[in-house]
Amino acid sequence: MVMRMFWVGFVVVLVYGKWVDGFLEFNETELSYIESYAHDEASNFGSSKVYSNAVMVGLTLIQSAGAKGAVCLDGTLPGYHLHRGHGSGANSWLIQLEGGGWCNNIRTCVYRKTTRRGSSSYMEKQISFTGILSNKAQENPDFFNWNRVKVRYCDGASFTGDSENKAAQLHFRGERIWLAAMEDLMSKGMRYSNQALLSGCSAGGLAAILHCDKFRNLFPRTTRVKCLSDAGLFLDAADVSGGRTLRNMYSGVVGLQGVKQNLPRICTNHLDPTSCFFPQNIIGHVKTPLFILNAAYDSWQIQSSLAPASADPHGYWHECRLNHAKCSASQIGFLQGFRNQVLNAVRGFSMSRQNGLFINSCFAHCQTERQDTWFADDSPVVGNKAIAIAVGDWYFERAAVKDIDCPYPCDKSCHNLVFRSA
Fold first, then answer.
1. Full-prediction pTM beyond 0.85?
2. Nearest residue to 280 (alpha-carbon basis) of 351, 209, 226
3. Contact predicate 370/131, CB 8 Å
4. Tell me, what DSSP letter sits at residue 160?
5. 137: phi then psi, degrees, rounded to nearest 5
6. Which of 51, 164, 166, 316 has its CA 20 to 30 A from that of 420?
7. What letter does residue 346 receive in the DSSP assignment?
8. If DSSP codes are grouped into helix, strand and coil, which group holds residue 206?
9. What are the C-alpha distances in Å from 247 to residues 21, 112, 261, 292, 293?
């Protein structure tokens, strides 16, 4: 039954991806659909190894959120999934912020509110906890017995917006959702934490960076608090046509959803708000210890920021963007240039002793929630160290972790994502 449900979901994702790809050819800045697609396919790909014994965790709606105006795009209550810790982890908390794209205009946000990315009415009532959320020591050696929480994402601006559009009946309340979720979890025991880790993947990885210091400020100074961003290092990079596809999209998100007021002042004091939605302009100012986990050839950024169909009208990049094995030498050269931009973006950040880094040379997107990439017999490694061990070594200060892989194609341990042709 589990296998059948997975394959049905996988086929739906593939069909949806075909529609998305065609859609993008007509809407060059509307990337939210394919971001969700890439995120979901990455998650489903990871579960294809059928960790059928994964713990299923129910959805909790935040009943107090409505009175605070902390609602999803369609006005429904936000929610999270909480699996309680035990033993040595009873007073330790791991918060995972869900990812899944953004919406940058009224049309994409109106569409989004008819999905689980914009309404709790469509959210799964139960989800499986794998990877960094797993409750099994053999799958998640350092965090398996912590209180583990997945906060659902239903605002479309990485938990940072605060405005509304009454005509379209849209509520842009990501920042309020963040605050309501944290307040609810604090009342359920998180206030007594002796250790806490804020994490997230994709749009949730960006949210983890943006909210890192706010998370730190929830706790006494005696609490060990750190943050982990997985696949959240979205770069303000030129696409294959020389345009700024992702910057154009972020400009829409920031302007539409009232994000500016919730961005770090230390950034907005000298840069425009859209620039301050890009992690490369924020990470150097984060005071709390932060770990950046990213693929040097992030598959979502290749598909939707660097080589989207809108920037490639003749289809020169079509095959390459879906499967790196079909890239020409010049295309690989372009992607090596992107890797150099990634390394430049984290250069100053990596000099801080308190920060951690794991940049592997894979074509991947989100590696903490998938069991096969987080911690398994054949997980990706850099210097013989799997991601879960690297993160644990950094969090518990067993070792400094500043792991940067050699360039493609040297890493044979990668779990590369290959997408079906549209």
1. yes
2. 209
3. yes
4. -
5. -60, -35
6. 51
7. T
8. helix
9. 19, 20, 19, 21, 22
Backbone phi, then psi, for 89, in 5-degree steps? -100, 10
- Identify the three-state secondary structure at position 41: helix
Q: How far is CA 113 from CA 69, 168, 306, in A?
A: 16, 11, 27
Element (H, E) at 386: strand 385-386
147: helix, strand or coil: strand
Given a contact cutoff of 8 angstroms between Cβ atoms, the answer to whether 292 and 349 are in contact is yes
Q: Which long-range contacts (CB under 8 A, 24 or more apart) does 140-145 make?
A: 140/374, 140/375, 140/388, 141/375, 141/388, 141/389, 141/392, 142/388, 142/391, 142/392, 142/395, 142/396, 143/89, 143/92, 143/94, 143/197, 143/392, 144/89, 145/85, 145/86, 145/87, 145/88, 145/89, 145/90
pLDDT digits (tens, 9 = 90+) for 211-257: 999 999 999 999 999 999 999 999 999 999 999 999 999 999 999 99
Instruction: Retrieve residue 54's tokens.
Output: 């994964």
Both tokens of residue 235?
């770069």
Which residues contact residue 269 at a Cβ distance below 8 angstroms, ignoring those fewer than 6 apart? none
Task: Enumerate the active-site residues.
Answer: 202, 298, 365
Asked if 300 and 419 touch (Cβ cutoff 8 Å), the reply is no
In angstroms, rounded to a whole number, what is the distance separating the alpha carbons of residues 404 and 167? 48
- β-pair type (92-97, 163-165): unpaired
Residue pair 306/347 in contact by the 8 Å Cβ criterion: no
How far is the C-alpha of 89 from the C-alpha of 29, rounded, in Å? Answer: 44
Q: Measure the CA angle with vertex 275, ends 17 and 111; round to 5°.
A: 35
CA distance 326 to 135: 39
Token pair for residue 370?
Answer: 């998938």
Return the bridge partners of 406, or none.
none
| Strands, E assignment, 217-275 | 224-230
Tokens 């950040």 — which residue?
A: 349
Are the beta carbons of 145 and 70 closer than 8 angstroms? no
Distances (CA, A) of 79 to 136, 152, 207, 239, 386: 24, 6, 16, 36, 31
Q: Which residue has tokens 């390394």? A: 343
